Amino acid sequence: MNEKKQFILETAMRLFAQNGFHLTSMQEIAEHSGVAKGSLYTYFRSKEDLMISILNYYDNLLQKKILQVEYERTLTPKEMFQKQLSMHFKEFSHDRDFLLVQIREQSFHSNLKIRHFFFKKRKDFLLFTTQKIIQLFGEEVQPYAFDCAIIFHGMVKEYSVLMIKGGYKFSYDELSAFLINRLENVIAGCLVDQKRIVNDTSDYFCIDAKDHSLSFINQIEQLLTKNKNEIGDKKYERAIAITNAMKENLAEEQKIVLEGLLIYLQNLNIPSITKAMEGMEHIINKRC
């Protein structure tokens, strides 16, 4: 990434953290970045595209650092988990605006791609923690691992908010050790009670399939409308009828019907929607 693009990312992130995504305009970002508004669009197609770029850029930096700890063979599994958690707090504290953006935007964002990003990161964290719990405490904790991961996620989130919005200063290592000790208490309690709240995690990890499918259907419709003259009225009307039927069957989780509709759409031979259809096909095949 060139320096100018990175500077725009950092500027936009600061403005999103201060004012919120919806109250920050591309004009304002351009002015604070020292570029013309037209030039800004050569780097990012839209404000949503800019937001996604920010989220991916900083998340990738964090994930690389956390992954590096996995290669430190001198650490025990518990020490490794503690160091990764400490790094999580350190990086969020260093990139304070990045966490503020997440706190502001993740709950009720109207943009599908941005909402999907936040859901995926929450899901990834829960999966990572669930796997760590089983690795640290053995297979006997497996039935309760996801419940424990949810509780742990809540603790990590609230202490992060205390640091960033409440101004609290913690030793990252001490905080990480404290939270992992509390996790051990939670796990010990679950093993004694032998009760769990979440009996089946499969539904949770499939929640984003509908949103992702709908995103591709909307993309197909936009491409159809954009290329309507080239496609022709009759073929356009057939294609739109198919996408409408897809939306209806998406709600009913009719995978077989969706596959049939997609084949029918493919048979119309409309080149401009080929890539979007490939994405839709991938999601249908991955649906739970």
TrEMBL record:
InterPro entries per the UniProt record, alphabetical: DNA-bd_HTH_TetR-type_CS, Homeodomain-like_sf, HTH-type_Tx_Regulator, HTH_TetR
Q: Which domain of life is it from?
A: Bacteria
Note the Gene3D superfamilies from the entry. Answer: Tetracycline Repressor, domain 2
GO biological process, any: negative regulation of DNA-templated transcription
UniProt DNA-binding region: 25-44
Q: Name one GO molecular function term.
A: DNA binding
Domain named HTH tetR-type: which ranges?
Answer: 2-62
Query: Which region is the signal sequence?
Result: none
Q: Which UniProt keywords apply?
A: DNA-binding, Repressor, Transcription, Transcription regulation
Name of the protein: TetR/AcrR family transcriptional regulator
Organism annotation: Bacillus aquiflavi
